[in-house]
Each structure stands twice: as C-alpha cells, then as structure tokens.
TrEMBL record:
It comes from the Bacteria. Residues 173-301 form the ATPase dynein-related AAA domain. This is GTPase subunit of restriction endonuclease-like protein. It comes from Psychrobacter sp. (strain PRwf-1). InterPro entries: ATPase_dyneun-rel_AAA (IPR011704), Methyl-DNA_Rec/Restrict_Enz (IPR052934), P-loop_NTPase (IPR027417). The keyword Zinc does not apply. One of its GO terms (molecular function) is ATP hydrolysis activity. Keywords: Endonuclease, Hydrolase, Nuclease.
C-alpha cells in the first residue's frame, strides 16, 4: 500500500511522484494542495477583518445598531465583535470611544434635543435618549439594511459555514505540462495588452505561474507554498525551467547553505527561489513517447514510486449473491502483464475504481481495461500475437467457459450443458463475430447496452465470466436460481 502523505515539510522540498497510469499520482497532488491551501476555519477571522477594512466607522456603527436592534451606550458598542474587528483592521487599540462619539454626534438627526454638536453631517442616522443610549432612526433601517447587507452577513450565524463552503486561501499553484508548455507560461514572458486609455496594443513582461507563486511566498514567509506540476515529463523541462534549473535546488534557495540568484531572461532582474516554496510533480513512467528527464534535473528531486494499490478496491456481487473480487482481478492481470510485457505495463487501481455492479464492470473492461492491455501487447509483442497474448494475460494457461473474447474453441462450451438452449443465441452471435472484433458479442451487448434487461439471463450479467479473470470455477452460474 502506498504510504500516506505526511505533514507539510519544514525545509525546501522537491518531489516527483512516479508510477504507471492509474496509481493515484494526480490524486496525491490534489491532496497536497488541500494541505497547503488554508482551511477556512483557520482563516475565517482574518478574512472577516480584511473585509471590514473596506468599511468606514460610520458604516460599522450603523451595522452594530442594526445587528443589536436595541438602545446601546458607547461602552456597550465598544464590546461588540464588529467594533473590535474594525479596530483590528485599522490596527488601533486606543481612543476607540472618541471615534465612536465623533461618528454618533456628527451623524445625529439635526432636530435632536439630546445631542449638542455644532458639526452635523448632511447624512444623519442616529439619535440618543436622555440616558445617553443611542439608536438608529426607524425610517432609515430598511435602507441601511440593504446598503450594509454584506457587512451584516459577516456576523450572521450561518456566515462561517457559508464561507467554509465557498472560500479558500490558496497557497499553491497547479499546472499541467504539455508539449507546447514553455518558459513564458512558467517563469516569465512578453504578452500583449490593450491600453485602457489609448486602446492601443502594448507588450509587457508578465510573470509566469512559478514566479507569481514565489512572489506570494516571499511576502508571506510564515507559510509554506507549493508548486504542483502534473505530467512533468510531457514538456521539455530544461526549456520550461530555463535558468531556474540552478536555483530550485534546496541548498541554493534563499537562506540555504549556498544561496544563489540568477538573472531572468526577459526582465533581467535578479531572482532567488524563496525557501518556503516546495515543488511537487507527477511523472507517468509508461508513456515512452514523452520526454526523458535529464540527469541534471533528476538529481534536484526526490522520486517516490506509486504502486498499484489493491487495498482500495471493492468486491462486487451479482443478483445471485456471487462475488467478483476486483482486487484479486487487478493483481492477477498485473502479474501476467508483468511476466509478458514487463513491470511498466501494469494497470493502476483507478482502472478498477468507481465500479458498482456487474454491468459497470463489463463496460470498464470493454472500453478501458482490455484496450489498454491490447496497447501494451502491440508495443511489446506486436500485432501478430494480439489474440494469443490477450488470452494469456486475461486467463493465463487456464481454459475458460465464458470468455470475454471471441474464440472458436470457446463456442462449444454449451453443447452438452443443461443450459445449452439458454446460451444458443450467445454462441451463435460469437460464431459470427470474428470479423467485427475480438470480443464475444454477448459480452459486448452487456457492456454497451445499459437498457439490457436483467431478465435476459445473459451469462455476462453474472459473476462467473469475471471470476475467471483471477480464478477458474466450474460452478454453475445459475445454481442459485
């Protein structure tokens, strides 16, 4: 079983997750991204204070009186969370009471008999009682409630839950490399821009994904940031990283043992990778058409191999209660694939995940699993050995009764069976399907026809044909019926 992802590192980290397709490499990147991106519960208070900084003191006082909807003294207002947050947003802890008095007096109704202030604003919202208790003017409450709805929502009971669902503080950047991905997208490049005043086209140097992340990390040294690269070997890494190849090494980072800076190609400025930036990437080891990482690049990364993980797979049951063990199926197929085509031809667990019933298994085998195996055979053995090798990988040296493949020798299995008439149509279809493909047509009918009735009693709607992919069973698939 693949090791779980540990806590965030405390030192600069460069890691590449390698392995065959379907072993959860990209899933690991996404899980890492969750660890670097702050959970909302942690950041809620600071985010709320940041939002309050956009509002003036008068708005805040109005919001407090709207939230409380009662008479309040200035000392009571000073204890309200909104006032405390506003003081924090303005980085103030002194003379808050004087600020409140100024706002209340300045925006008091001009006909007030309890407030003596010569400086009155044309915008008035407040008045107070003889006992110095302040209140909002009733006629203005609907208007203020609408105008300050976003501020008021920050102190609604459901606000934290809503924020948890819709907001994150991102400290990561996820990109996917491809053949056309280059230095301009990753480091920096010259890009066109329309001048808003003149309408003319201009060209300017803009940061790429990695430099933009490094800029954020440099201004926030208390947190770690992550550059996440999916399919790193799909691009020319030497070209994409350029001069950064020298400075991504942990010891060359800012604050490292031998810190080093480089001059960027377009802007010409000196650049050093912050020590709180980590780099994670994935690499598919099966696709031989992709670029090979050179040794200078490889030595700057730790490599973690992701193996097929059978512990994540489930057991299916047909409507008679017979089981199909997907873990054993994957292990058996991979064992035979390794023997015939090599270790890099194995199938990852994702090929067998998300399957809930026999019909879905048939569809997955027909559309993804067997075609992938055929691709490996063509690469390692050649087209001439396709049918022979495919049978060898699916069933080994075992003779089977209910093959997924078209095979003349398998068409006589029902002749002397009690259920011969039941399988006659299926056998006939198989006999006449050689020119149309490698699969048994009755199997194709189950895999490609979601409306096929379970009452059709097709053998391919039972567990028996799929159990034979990892074990040989002579059990009658209809003995429970």
């Amino acid at each position: 079983m693949n090791a779980p992802i540990a806590a965030l590192p405390t030192e600069p980290t460069n890691v590449i997750f390698t392995g065959v397709a379907g072993t959860g490499k990209t899933y690991r990147l996404l899980e890492l991204q969750k660890r670097y991106d702050d959970s909302i519960a942690v950041c809620w208070d600071s985010w709320r204070i940041q939002q309050i900084s956009h509002y003036g003191w008068c708005d805040v006082v109005c919001a407090v009186l709207l939230l409380e909807d009662r008479l309040m003294t200035v000392p009571e207002m000073m204890q309200h969370p909104l006032i405390i947050d506003k003081a924090a947003a303005n980085k103030r802890n002194e003379n808050i009471n004087q600020t409140l008095w100024v706002q209340l007096n300045t925006h008091t109704h001009p006909d007030s008999t309890t407030v003596n202030s010569a400086q009155r604003s044309a915008n008035y919202y407040f008045d107070k009682t003889e006992t110095s208790q302040w209140y909002l003017l009733d006629e203005l409450k609907p208007i203020l409630t609408e105008q300050l709805s976003e501020l008021l929502s920050l102190y609604d009971d459901s606000a934290r839950q809503h924020y948890h669902q819709t907001h994150t503080v991102s400290r990561s950047c996820l990109v996917s490399f491809h053949q056309s991905y280059g230095y301009d997208e990753f480091v920096e490049g010259i890009r066109p821009r329309i001048n808003a005043q003149t309408g003319q086209m201009q060209y300017e140097i803009q940061q790429g994904a990695f430099l933009a992340l490094c800029a954020k990390a440099a201004s926030d040294p208390e947190h770690r940031y992550a550059m996440l690269i999916d399919e790193i070997n799909r691009a020319n890494t030497a070209q994409v990283f350029g001069e950064l190849m020298s400075v991504i090494e942990p010891s060359k980072r800012a604050g490292g043992a031998t810190p080093m800076s480089v001059r960027l190609a377009y802007s010409g400025r000196q650049f050093m990778v912050p020590s709180n930036v980590d780099i994670y990437a994935t690499m598919n080891t099966q696709d031989h058409s992709l670029a090979v990482l050179d040794m200078a690049f490889r030595r700057r990364f730790d490599f973690v191999t992701c193996y097929p993980d059978a512990s994540l797979l489930s057991v299916l049951k047909d409507d008679a209660g017979k089981e199909v063990d997907l873990a054993q199926m994957m292990l058996s197929i991979n064992q035979r694939l390794t023997a015939l085509c090599g270790e890099q031809a194995q199938l990852g667990q994702s090929y067998f995940m998300g399957i809930d019933d026999i019909r879905q298994l048939a569809k997955r085998l027909y559309r993804q699993i067997v075609p992938q195996i055929m691709a490996f055979i063509s690469l390692h053995r050649g087209e001439a050995y396709l049918l022979q090798s495919l049978h060898q990988i699916l069933y080994g040296d075992n003779s089977v009764s209910y093959s997924l493949l078209y095979h003349p020798d398998a068409l006589n299995y029902a002749a002397d069976e009690p259920h011969a008439s039941l399988f006659a149509a299926e056998a006939y279809e198989q006999r006449h399907s050689a020119e149309s493909g490698l699969f048994a047509q009755a199997f194709v009918a189950v895999a490609e026809n979601p409306s096929l009735s379970l009452e059709s009693r097709s053998i391919y709607l039972t567990a028996a044909p799929y159990q034979q992919l990892y074990s040989v069973s002579s059990e009658d698939p209809y003995d429970a019926r």
